[in-house]
Structures are given as C-alpha cells and as structure tokens.
Amino acid sequence: MAFMPATLRDVADRAQVSVRTVSNVVSGYQHVSPQMRQRVLQAIEELDYRPNPVARTLRTGRTGMLALVVPEIDVPYFSELAREVIDSAAELGYRVMVDQTGHDHERERQLLLGENRTMLFDGILFSPLVTKAELLDMHGSSRMPLVLLGEHEFDGRYDHIAIDNVQAAHDAVTHLISLGRTRIAAVGTQPLEGYATPLQRTAGYEAALREAGLQVRPEHTIPAAHYSRTGGYTACVALLTTSPRPDAIFCFSDLLAIGAMRAVFDAGLRVPDDVAVIGIDDIDEGRFARPSLSTVSLDIPFIAREAVHRIAARIENPQTPAEEIVATHQLVARESTLGMSDEHPAHR
Amino acid sequence: MAFMPATLRDVADRAQVSVRTVSNVVSGYQHVSPQMRQRVLQAIEELDYRPNPVARTLRTGRTGMLALVVPEIDVPYFSELAREVIDSAAELGYRVMVDQTGHDHERERQLLLGENRTMLFDGILFSPLVTKAELLDMHGSSRMPLVLLGEHEFDGRYDHIAIDNVQAAHDAVTHLISLGRTRIAAVGTQPLEGYATPLQRTAGYEAALREAGLQVRPEHTIPAAHYSRTGGYTACVALLTTSPRPDAIFCFSDLLAIGAMRAVFDAGLRVPDDVAVIGIDDIDEGRFARPSLSTVSLDIPFIAREAVHRIAARIENPQTPAEEIVATHQLVARESTLGMSDEHPAHR
DNA sequence: TTGTAAGCGTTATCAC
DNA sequence: GTGATAACGCTTACAA
Asked: What is the pTM for the complete model shown?
C-alpha cells in the first residue's frame, strides 16, 4: 500500500470547498472569509497537507532554488562563501544547490551552457575561472539570471560582485615593500590559461614592484595549477632554490600561503625572519596558523549577501539593469610578515 | 517578447510525429524505428530542445536531487564530505542541495520533519547532532529515504554510515599513553545536550584511561560548544590553568586541536614537548599545520561514496533493508605527538 | 468571495 | 512501432 500525500483536492473535499479556496488559503490570499479559512485550515491540519513544490513550480516557473557553482567546495574560501550564500538565500526563501566545476573548463561550460535552460533553478551564482570573452560565449543568449562572483572585468551585461584584484595584490606587495623586503616573489600565476583572477593579481604585483623601483624577476613568478596547500608547497620549494632567494612571497590565495609557509620551514628557514609570507582571502585557517598569516581580507559575507540580493532582484524583475558591486578589501598584517608580538594575539 | 523554450509538443509538430514518439526518443526507449529517431533527433537539434526536468519530476516523482544536511558547510570536515558527496552523486546522476542546521536543534527538526515530505528531493543525507531517540521521533512515519552519517547508535531502521567513535577515541588516547603521557585531557565534551558523537568519544577516552590505570580527572574534561578553532582555543586556555597541567590533549575534532595548539603556543609552551595534541578527522589543514597534527583519520571519501550509493539503492527500491556500514579509521601520528623529524616530511 | 476548468511539460496507459 | 489522451498537483483566468 503506497502512501499518498494529501493533495489540494483532498483538502478541498474534506473541507467541502473548492480547490480554488484552498489554494487561496495556502498562498495567503487576502479575500477569504474567516469561517472558510478556518474550515480549510482544519482540513489541512487533519490531513497533514503540504503543498507539492514541484507542481507549484511547473505552474509558476519558480523553483525557489539557486545554483552556486564553484571550483571546489572544500577550498575554505568557497566553503565560507557557500555558508554565507546558503544563509542569505534562506532568509529570502531560497535554497541552494552546490555544483563543483573541479577546475574543469568543460564542466564549467556545461553547467553554464547546458543546464541553465533546464528550469531547475531560478538563478545561478557563478564563481568562474574563465575570462570574460569565454563567459559571454558560454552564457550566450540564455536568460537564466546570472550573478558573477569575484571577477573584475565587466562589460555591463551581468550582475557582478567584484573584487578589485589588481588593487588587492598591489596592497599586499606594497605592505611587503614597506617592511623593507626587496626580493618579492609571486606564487599562483597561471601562464597557460587565460584565467582572470591570476592575471589581475599578477598585474597588481608587477605594478607595485615597478612603482617601488624593484625588479620583476621571471624566476620569482611561480605558477600554481591549483590554489591548494600542496600547490603552494610545491611552488615554494621551487622558489627557494632560485638565486637570489626571495625574502618575501606574495601568494595569490591564503591556501597557497599556508603551503608556502610549510615549505619555508621544511627548508630550515623562518617566517617572517628569512622569508615573509602574505596571502589573499582571509580564511579562518590563517588566523590560527603559526605564524598567523598576513593577508588581504575579502569581505566574504558581504559578497555572499550582495550576490543573493542581486539575483533575487533579477529573478523578481528580469529587466533590472545589471550592476557591478565592488567589495572592499583590507590589508590584515599578522605574524607572517610582522613577526611575533605579545601585544597582539596572533589569532585575532 | 518572452522567450519560450521548445517543448515536447513543438518537437513533435516539427518532426511530424506524436509526442509519444518524441518522448520515446528522448528517454532512450528502444523500440523506435531508425528513420523516426532520425527525424526526431533533427527536430530536437533545430529547436535546441531540452526536456523540462520539473515537468518530468511531476510525472515521475523523481527529482534527481539529494539533500545534504550538515551543521556548517565551512567546517572542513563537512566541506570535504560535501565535496565527495557531490562528486559521488554526480556519477549516479544526482545533484546535491546543501542545507545547514547551524547547530540549531529546531532547524534540524524542521529540515527533517517539515521538508522531508515536500517532494523536492529523492532522499536526504543527514549528518545529525541529535541522538537516536529524537531522530526517530523526528523522522517519524515519513518515507523519505534517509541515510545517517557519522552516528554509532543504531536500531536498524535507517541506513547508516557509522564511525566507531568509541574505538577512534580509544585509539587516539592509547597513542598518547604509549608515548608516556599520563595527564591526558579531553576537549569537546558536551555535557548539556545529548549529542551522540561527543558522548561516544568521551566514553572511548575514559575507557582508555582506565585501562591504562590512569585517573579520569573532571577538570581535564572540557566542553566545547562548537567544534571550531576558537572553541578549541578557549577550552585549551582554561585547561592550561588547571593543576596538574595536562601533558597531552585529545581533541574531539581536528579543528578543536588546531585551536588548542595555538593556545598552547600563546601560553609560551611547546607542542609536543610540553603538551602533545591529537585530534580526530584528518582534514587537510592538519597536514600543513605546524607542527603537523596527529589525528585519527576518517575515510571521508568512503563515507560519502557509501552514503550516496545507499541512498540511491533505497530510492531505487524503498524495500531495501536498512544497513549499517562502519567506516574504518586509522591513527595517523604526526609531529604534534611525535615531535619533528627530518625523515618524515610533516605534511605527508 | 468562491467555483469551474484550463493549462504548465512530461510520462504512461491505452488502443491501433 | 506509433498515435491520441489522461493524469501528475498546482495556480489562475473567467464565471457565477
């Protein structure tokens, strides 16, 4: 005996009213007489009725679901972002499906191109690897609401919560320079692919060096396939064999920096005395690392909240003009560049 | 002019066949003549038709969606779990919606009780805080496929990917004892609520101490509201004021251990010389911590894979008898208990 | 204010 | 093997 959930019709029958009235009550329609509402409410209670969201969706076209597409959910930056996105979305009545591209260009294309037309989500929050041109090509003529996260380039077609990657990188490097470092390496460039984020951060890095009259050494610019701890470790190992050895390393993410610090220690050197290290993101892990990690803090809750609000607005009204919102960033100097200090507990 | 995606009917009209035939082709039905199939395929191509999954769901009752319910997605253990769950689910054609209970008992109840009946998911993967009794009470008579993650208690009603928490805790403490530590503290107990995991780990902790003839000191058993770095830090600060001071700390999660290590350093002590520290989980962060964190490794990919396969089997056939699968665990001794070693790079 | 009925885009049950 | 057609459970003109 299969269990059948109660339907609108069941409720209507039991309450001796039409489905229309039940629907009105359920969707909070105003013009329902109190006694009707009472009868319906009671029948709903008795039958333990819950509206079927799928049927509702088929009718209204709204699923109440957002897709969040990130490279890897277990990268702290993205898991912290996901947390905030899910919470913000919940406040607005949305739930969030998480998809991972796994750094796979093709999968990224598929998620954007293939599935955007399937009416499973009301909108997509997309943290892309690809550059603008590819993106336009991908999303193409689809009208699935889309909000971009983290890129800087912008052509006005998409809502966009941006980070000023060039400036953020510039700030990090300038901090190192202000501490008297002169041989500043960069970890996390991506020479092979046209990913936007590393390109922008590289630009900021080089600009800061040049403005300070420092040399940009190709051997001090190390790519990292993935922005992972292991990637940072490997890159840093290579870096430490160069001559002259760098006295500071600017990593394009905190995770890279964590790996880099470990490599410095394994090489028998000290952070920051021998090599200062700074990252970008300000993930929680960095506060507790030893030494605690200097970084450029990105306002993840802000980014998440804005993204959800933008997509909600766009879903509400597709004509909403696209907007670029630039999230602020802030240099956070901790032990990995300043050294130990008793006055300022490291993990704050 | 609103853009209307092509429907099955549009394709049928264009190909001059019935919707039935188109549906057959789309769903890969066997008995379709080659020329028919060809005609249909071409029409699909021309109209850029994609089946509407919502309509399909309404008909079939299958959404192809799983819900993953965890306390907090940005806790590394859960984000690593989510990553594996999403990947495993994708292989089987499912997508994953992530929900957070945020340590909120009420929200947990709601997600399980309220929404399970809404036909938005085919099944729920649930990493619960609550104990068995409450759970039974919650899920009650619902027939939404459910797989439990991480608990040990079992009464045969639910599929269940378990961890032997008692044994895992026992192993961790025994490791500390084997290193000659005698004043071993525990961080992460939960005296107020009846959460299963901390209760089990406390049991294993105390059993190991007793078997070794060591004293169980109440003042060396410190609760932690959240299994966070900050929680571990705070608990450890309290711990270090006790007399006698512990010479080892068993933390109920790696995150707690990371926080605890930081507190030890801030107190001017060394790990493991003054205080050895061990956790449970084996998150990636622990490999790169300094010193690298000894831990009890839980096989997260295994847990995720089994969970997804179990729920898929149950969705396929609701009569599938419930099964308890116990994931193996393994002690991983690193620097935080063994001390530094040149031979064994810490981050392996 | 409430009832009736027509879809939303599929799949599945009949016939042929 | 293929064609009509009735659901799936809901929302919403259109009537009453």
From this structure: 0.92
